[in-house]
């Protein structure tokens, strides 16, 4: 039965009988044997008790390996299941997972677990850790597990996906499956923390029952756990869903439509400022703004290729009863193509730049929806330029300059450029025309090289109709996200038979450039909420000035007069006339992150002045109303940038 095991450094060990991963580790060194948490056998993660019976490549996993962290977290999830089942015997268990963000366990019982119950569950897990009980890896017949979980429909659903023999784990009387590898005993668990409870649809489908998801994390060192908890606190502080709730900017209510945001007055104000800014910027850059319907004949999307390549992300067509099928648009490009086709075009008109804040709809699954970042209805800052072949590079550079100018005004500095190409092996995802792809990709690359810009290249990230330049930003929460894009398209002009009359009097095919400056309004404003932590610069703030009278009877009229004067000058000012203490009102303006607070008493009323406090400071400065108006005007005009 002799066989050999090859270690990562190329060393070979020979055996004449079955050997466990733990025994292999001990044969290398005593210290490695003690440190071994799991291992990989031919690349597959296995527990330390796993028996190797044939030639294989083996690596030992310790707490120094990334995979070791995943094993630790999976083990805490398993122990959490065990203690929760002991505390609530009628509880049913759903899915569980461990990854770079931590772990989760889905549970279901008559009265769902509350966040106030987590400390007791933590204590129970700690007790199990101190006991140091063995976690046994066992191979069990599927039928035996089915009998064990006969009262748990969620586990039976998961069991259907398993083979006849299932890798399971046992801790005392508790058994579960679906884990690749767990620690050999509970005593090897080090630092952990249960974090939250939240609803989670079974297997991510909104038509399925809602379970209770318990999330947590674990580390081998306390310092690492403390750092992670600090990071999570920062994320929570910046989470646009929390900011949107606390500042009363928007809400999403699944009862009236999941993934469909309602913009409250202050949120709508921010959005309106951004939209006006973008429109003015684009008009100044030569764009013609249009408005087109959110519905379009399905045939247009069949011609464009969206129906073939994007159908799963589109809502079902609506049969109008007379043979006409209408579709909620997932993209604006076919609509802008119709604007271009409405007239005969001459080479003298090109470039023709068409832009729109175009509403679109995507068929997003419920489990993927998240605040403003993943929604079913969105408004894209969209634009399409129709150019001659000779104009491509100049127009590309002009568009990129517009994007970077906008970034400067919003103080977006952390971004990089990514050239996104097709995957030539993926014939289903991408339009089949090798010559078109080679030509357009080389043009895009040449344009970037000629401008001397650094970029990364990403195969397989192109749109189905052409390559693109993506401007990737880091969100405040650390995620890599496409903010802006410029796409080169030779395909759609061909599909829709677009043309312009050239200098020779003949018809020629234009090239189409798709571009989005700041993406969708929803995602962009979510991004702004997070990078500003809700403290919007003055030019964007929904309320720029809060005017507070010291005494309601004596100073309210003057406060209203100051508010009205500021509003007349175009600033967004409000007056707090609630019957509350002055200190409470001032603290409230700081909580609501209003850029300027004006406190008005006898002195201010007599001298036609204001007492000014900037957000984030306790300093109060007396100024004439005229001086303050000039100060805030300069602040707004400079996009709140400090010079």
Please characterize this protein's 3D structure.
The protein has 643 residues and is α+β, with helices and mostly antiparallel strands. It contains 21 helices and 34 strands. Strand 8 and strand 9 form a beta hairpin. It starts with a strand and ends in a 6-residue tail after the last helix. It catalyses: tRNA(Thr) + L-threonine + ATP = L-threonyl-tRNA(Thr) + AMP + diphosphate + H(+).
Shape: globular
Q: State the end-to-end distance.
A: 78 Å
CA radius of gyration is 31 Å
What is the number of helices? 21
**What amount of the residues lies in strands?**
25-35%
User: pLDDT under 50 segments (min length 5)?
Assistant: none
Strand order of the largest sheet: 17-21-22-29-26-25-23-24
- Let me know the number of strands: 34
**Helical residue percent?**
25-40%
What class, by secondary structure content? alpha+beta
The major beta sheet can be summarized as: 8 strands, mixed
What is the mean predicted local confidence, pLDDT? Answer: 90
Task: Offer a few descriptive terms.
643 residues, alpha+beta, eight-stranded mixed β-sheet, 21 helices, 34 strands, 36% helix, globular
Characterize this entry briefly.
With 643 residues, the chain is α+β, with helices and mostly antiparallel strands. Helix content is 36%, strand content 28%.
Secondary-structure topology with pairs:
Blueprint: E1 3-6, E2 12-15, E3 19-20, H1 21-28, H2 30-35, E4 38-41, E5 44-47, E6 51-52, E7 56-61, H3 66-87, E8 92-99, E9 102-108, H4 118-131, E10 136-141, H5 142-148, H6 153-159, E11 165-171, E12 174-177, E13 191-201, E14 210-219, H7 222-238, H8 240-246, E15 250-251, H9 254-257, E16 262-263, H10 265-284, E17 288-289, E18 295-297, H11 298-304, H12 306-310, E19 318-319, E20 325-328, H13 333-341, E21 352-361, E22 377-387, H14 392-409, E23 415-421, H15 434-450, E24 456-459, E25 468-474, E26 480-489, H16 491-495, E27 500-501, E28 507-508, E29 511-520, H17 521-532, E30 545-549, H18 552-568, E31 573-575, H19 582-591, E32 596-600, H20 602-607, E33 609-614, E34 620-624, H21 625-637
Parallel strand pairs: 1-7, 17-21, 23-24, 30-31, 30-32
Antiparallel strand pairs: 1-2, 3-6, 4-5, 4-7, 8-9, 9-14, 10-11, 11-12, 13-14, 15-16, 18-20, 19-20, 21-22, 22-29, 23-25, 25-26, 26-29, 27-28, 32-33, 33-34
